[in-house]
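Let us work through a complete example step by step.
Step 1: write down the sequence.
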Amino acid sequence: MRPALGIDIGATKIACAVVNDDGSVAGSIVVEPTGSVSAEETAGNVFRAIDRALTEQDMTASELAGIGIGSAGPIDPEGTYGDVDTLPHMHGYGLGRAVRQRYGHRPAVDNDANCFALAEAAFGAGRGEAIVVGITLGTGLGCGIVVDGRIFAGTTGNAGEVGRCLVDGLMYDQALSGSGVAGVFRELTGEDCRAEEVQARAEQGDDRAAAEAWRIYGARLGGVLGVMAAVLDPGVIVLGGSVAAGFPWFGGEAEARMREQLSTPAARHVRLCRGALGPRAGCLGAAALALR
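Step 2: predict the structure and record it as tokens.
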């Protein structure tokens, strides 16, 4: 099968790669800045990334099986942006149409959390499982659901959009993101620290407040994951995003709290783990949209 091109569009950078149907990257992952001045600037950077990736492989777009785009959303299946907090200049812009006009492929498009889940289901930690839930923990919380190798979109295309749901009086986007870790640490110590700093303190091994902040965060996350797992009965829940780097400090507590809420068969079967693909997941998930 011919390879596909996967494009991962974030708030600050665009990653692009030619991806084979086994999930291997042909060559390297090309990176360009996203840009924040105008939609035309960002589209130009997307084109530059595509051209570089194709040139590196001495390919033309006509040799691709397709093009996939994963981006911070909302973005509709045609590739037109809604009101995206991290990409406000893209509102209303039809990136899918622009890519199709330039390269001759109608791109397959979805949001970044769905692409993360699809990548891990197809090529990573969820491979072989019928139901995979992918959770991204970073500046907010993203969720994607993959059933039998396909993204489950729901009736309106919003399945998994749980960021505005509440836990302990806070939206998931607040409580379960990096700012959520920082908030717990501030409540314990009165200090302002980013999640990365809390992780660094925990790594030192003698900071009890940092360890306790991760434990509290893990308990909160585990309670939420337990509800998701009870409803969806997945084989695995895969965690990605910057906050997932703290998994050694919160994972055990999260898993215990999750399992407490499940029936015995579900509790025995479901796995909770970090993603296996690292920074490649965005490009691989986008490419998988086109390959599948």
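Step 3: interpret the result. The chain has two domains: 4-115+280-291, 128-275.
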